[in-house]
Write a structure and sequence with these properties.
The chain is α+β, with helices and mostly antiparallel strands and 60 residues long. It has one domain. It has four helices and two strands; from the N terminus they run H-H-H-E-E-H. It has a two-stranded antiparallel ribbon with strand order 1-2. The longest helix is centred in the C-terminal third of the chain and has 18 residues. It is flat, with a radius of gyration of 13 Å. The termini are far apart.
Length: 60
């Protein structure tokens, strides 16, 4: 499902999010490629850092 959502752009991805019914704010768990990641843990921070760095490199 996550890969499907990644293929959408702009508002289409928001519609999928709203209809999904999952609220990570309640559990503190997000999913990345089928793996559970604690939103408040180091693994999540490392993932966000990696995504930010990868995105920065693609802009340059």
């Amino acid at each position: 499902m996550q890969n499907l959502v990644f293929s959408y752009h702009n508002l289409n991805s928001n519609y999928i999010k709203v209809s999904g019914g999952y609220d990570w704010k309640k559990t503190g768990i997000v999913y990345c490629q089928g793996k559970e990641i604690n939103r408040y843990g180091k693994e999540y921070d490392d993932l966000v850092d990696e995504l930010y760095i990868s995105n920065s490199k693609s802009i340059i």
